Amino acid sequence: IPQISYASTAPELSDPGRYEFFSRVVPPDSYQAQAMVAVVRALGWSYVSTLASEGNYGESGVEAFVQSSREAGGLCIAQSIKIPREPKPGEFAKVIGRLMETSTARGVVLFANEDDIRRVLEAATLANLSGHFSWVGSDSWGAKMAPVQGLEEAAHGAITILPKRASVPGFDEYFTSRSLENNRRNLWFHEFWEDDFNCRL
């Protein structure tokens, strides 16, 4: 079944041998990592830490960042920290503690999910370290407010990456006007309808 994704950025999905019927309208994380290296270098940083959510997105993103930084040269990774998929209580305080072990690496490159970003910022606030770190966040943070709401002081000055996007005239109107009467060609639409409206057709 051919698939087109609007948000899947994992680099391995670019392998046509494994994902012959997969396409996407967003660039893979390898490009995002290159942009992040360019931002870090433009800021004049030479010593940074990386922070990743455990899993494909976070780990692949950091791996791509490390690879791009090696190719670009002049950038040292102080440490690479992984946030467990199911963090235990106190895990984020430990993350901040580990970042402070190399406290001169104030730049932190984040490839993490929204919830992990929020909890890292909370832990930095609780440790009285708002403003100590300079964050460079991936597209999971992007322009979203949820990770920083109420934690603006800890996030102040963060630079986040987001793929270029544009509105397609008429798309929202078309998308929101879909109904059972005018959308019969989509075989799964009735399942969505039942789930969304909690009904049985």
From TrEMBL:
<dbReference type="Pfam" id="PF01094">
    <property type="entry name" value="ANF_receptor"/>
</dbReference>
<keyword id="KW-1015">Disulfide bond</keyword>
<feature type="domain" description="Receptor ligand binding region">
    <location>
        <begin position="1"/>
        <end position="184"/>
    </location>
</feature>
<comment type="similarity">
    <text>Belongs to the G-protein coupled receptor 3 family.</text>
</comment>
<keyword id="KW-0325">Glycoprotein</keyword>
<dbReference type="InterPro" id="IPR050726">
    <property type="entry name" value="mGluR"/>
</dbReference>
<keyword id="KW-0675">Receptor</keyword>
<protein>
    <submittedName>
        <fullName>GRM6 protein</fullName>
    </submittedName>
</protein>
<dbReference type="InterPro" id="IPR000162">
    <property type="entry name" value="GPCR_3_mtglu_rcpt"/>
</dbReference>
<dbReference type="GO" id="GO:0016020">
    <property type="term" value="C:membrane"/>
</dbReference>
<dbReference type="InterPro" id="IPR000337">
    <property type="entry name" value="GPCR_3"/>
</dbReference>
<keyword id="KW-0812">Transmembrane</keyword>
<dbReference type="GO" id="GO:0004930">
    <property type="term" value="F:G protein-coupled receptor activity"/>
</dbReference>
<dbReference type="InterPro" id="IPR001828">
    <property type="entry name" value="ANF_lig-bd_rcpt"/>
</dbReference>
<dbReference type="InterPro" id="IPR028082">
    <property type="entry name" value="Peripla_BP_I"/>
</dbReference>
<keyword id="KW-0472">Membrane</keyword>
<keyword id="KW-1133">Transmembrane helix</keyword>
